[in-house]
Amino acid sequence: MKIIKLSAIDSTNSYLKELSKNLTIDDGLVVVAQSQQKGRGQAGTHWQSKSGESLTFSVFKRYSSLDVQEQTRINFGVALGIKTALDAMAIPQVTIKWPNDIMSYSKKVAGVLVENQLQGSSVVSSIIGIGLNVNETTFDNLPQASSLRLATGISYDLDVVLKQVAGAVLSKLSKVTSEEKIDLQQQYEASLFKKDVLSDFQPIDGAPFSGYIRGVDANGQLLVAHENGPIKSYQLKQLKMRF
């Protein structure tokens, strides 16, 4: 695994994007920043990090034969890779909050931003940004945030955690185009936060309701069974879970 370490940068994803315009990037290259000023999350959200306590890094992954209609499997692989690494570190009660937030107990410890590069009808590569709360003990105005240290009481070596998480993500992504790709969705659905637990939801354009997360469809949309009603699918930002 080749790792580029930077002291301060706006965004590791943006850095890798610019790098890829002029160079042929090695598959599996990791770029990590000690301080990231403009970290981005899903749907334009901002990822907060603390220098020396958080991990903010991006992974470059190349594919040889991945149809654009199967790109949801990348999200499955990334989320499962992080979960696999944290499970191996004995972080308690790790789950995936759809689409790819990583939880310990009921609090968020990691966020992901996947940006795919397309060529015709194929995904040729991905830049995967990961923000992981490692050694923080306090968060400003983020009541649903946590860290590995808060979950276990242990202080972690950031370099060790980086290699474990990046390695596990790349291992899972190697299965995206293999015969094991069906297993990725099954493992992902089994790992979903609040799956099959009665939960409260707030749609962006409707009344709140209670229901059960059942899984995801082929496009990665969340499948929710309304209490005493039908199963409906939801895209990112169409639905917010209240917990």
Short structural description:
The protein is an alpha+beta fold and 243 residues long. It contains five helices and twelve strands.
Oligomeric grouping of the chains: single chain
Number of strands: 12
Total helices: the number is: 5
- Class by SSE composition: alpha+beta
Radius of gyration: 18 Å
- Name the beta content range: 25-35%
Unreliable residue runs: none
- How do the helices and strands follow one another from N- to C-terminus? EHEEHEEEEHHHEEEEE
Overall, the morphology is globular
- Strand order of the biggest β-sheet: 1-2-3-7-6-5-4
Write up this protein.
The chain has 243 residues and is an alpha+beta fold. It contains five helices and twelve strands. It has helices at 12-22, 72-88, 148-152, 158-173, 181-190, and strands at residues 3-9, 30-36, 54-62, 94-97, 101-104, 107-119, 122-133, 199-203, 209-216, 222-226, 231-234, 239-242. The chain has a seven-stranded mixed sheet with strand order 1-2-3-7-6-5-4, with helices on both faces. The chain has a five-stranded antiparallel sheet with strand order 11-10-9-8-12. Helix 2 packs across helix 4 and helix 2 (72-88) packs across helix 5 (181-190). The chain starts with a strand and ends with a strand. The model has no long low-confidence stretch (mean pLDDT 92).
